[in-house]
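Structure in, sequence out. Go:
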């Protein structure tokens, strides 16, 4: 670091994103992207006319997209917030609702950006340990009077908590915001977006990166009561009023209008996930009951780091977290049937060697 960096950031440990290698072609199962292209309507939207309009600023309110999203999720446009990916939406939420008087609370094994945001913004936090089976003990969140952040399904474990559990957390923390990060909800979970009409302390974050095949567009939808949305909108307008690009808005509108296409794609991914899980179990792997577009698995005979390295040498990228309790696990994104068959065959060779 330079001698000019503010002292308050000297101990900041930045989030480390998944590898995006450029030197060779890999079967890329490490960053939970969709293996399928966006809806054909998205391709149609990326017209020459739209590209020519890049000389103009986008609509800072994203009015048309907010209206489309509101219609799909059966809420008001005033309940919808648009951001440059869910990371930005989460950052604005941490800025708005976490401080010395409102510390954050989240699981000890979860999305790695949560503690980074707390350190970046100077907000204290507690990390509540998952159980030995990587499930969340919801009772530990009852009445803790902190800003609660839960990824549901959790990342990287893929495990879920129920709608009833979330309601109990909301009910026992009425004076604190509860943020439910539903990045992977479309792969087998039940969303709690409909609860925003009943709880004014609920904020639900969705992303288009996973189930809508728009990771490169950087687009997300956040849902909450009108007052909460106004709060994070205030943060946005104080940071970057044109945070969602014109092309991302257009792609989002087309994607939302073709929900049937994405329902089919998600069903394909879920079917492939379940088939791959069965194949890995036959090889002796142990894994969580994932409701996401990835598997979280380990093999009792080979370490996670060794499997990661040998798979990479064979041109297959998966995600390995060198952290306590999960260092023997791999997070494996679900790709196409052909990609997952290649993975299974590679693992057979590695385990036999």
């Amino acid at each position: 670091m330079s001698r000019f960096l503010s002292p308050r950031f000297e101990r900041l440990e930045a989030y480390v994103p998944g590898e995006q290698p450029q030197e060779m072609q890999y079967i890329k199962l490490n960053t939970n992207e969709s293996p399928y292209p966006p809806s054909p309507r998205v391709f149609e939207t990326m017209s020459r006319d739209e590209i020519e309009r890049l000389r103009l600023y986008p609509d800072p309110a994203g009015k048309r997209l907010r209206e489309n999203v509101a219609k799909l999720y059966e809420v008001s446009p005033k309940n919808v917030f648009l951001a440059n990916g869910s990371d930005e939406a989460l950052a604005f939420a941490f800025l708005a609702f976490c401080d010395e008087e409102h510390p954050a609370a989240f699981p000890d094994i979860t999305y790695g950006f949560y503690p980074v945001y707390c350190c970046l913004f100077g907000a204290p936090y507690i990390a509540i340990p998952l159980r030995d089976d990587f499930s969340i003990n919801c009772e530990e969140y009852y009445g803790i009077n902190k800003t609660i952040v839960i990824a549901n399904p959790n990342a990287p474990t893929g495990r879920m908590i129920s709608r009833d559990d979330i309601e109990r957390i909301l009910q026992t923390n009425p004076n604190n915001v509860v943020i439910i990060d539903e990045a992977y909800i479309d792969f087998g979970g039940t969303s709690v977006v409909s609860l925003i009409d009943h709880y004014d302390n609920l904020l639900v974050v969705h992303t288009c990166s996973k189930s809508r095949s728009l990771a490169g567009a950087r687009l997300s939808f956040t849902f909450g009561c009108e007052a909460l949305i106004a709060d994070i909108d205030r943060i946005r307008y104080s940071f970057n009023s044109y945070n969602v690009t014109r092309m991302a808005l257009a792609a989002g509108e087309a994607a939302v209008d073709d929900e049937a296409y994405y329902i089919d794609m998600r069903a394909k991914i879920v079917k492939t996930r379940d088939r791959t899980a069965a194949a890995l179990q036959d090889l002796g792997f142990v894994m969580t009951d994932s409701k996401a577009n990835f598997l979280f698995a380990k093999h009792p005979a080979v370490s996670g780091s060794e499997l990661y390295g040998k798979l990479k040498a064979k041109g297959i990228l998966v995600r390995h977290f060198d952290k306590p309790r999960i260092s023997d696990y791999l997070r494996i994104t679900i790709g196409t049937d052909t990609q997952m068959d290649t993975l299974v065959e590679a693992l057979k060779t590695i385990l036999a060697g």
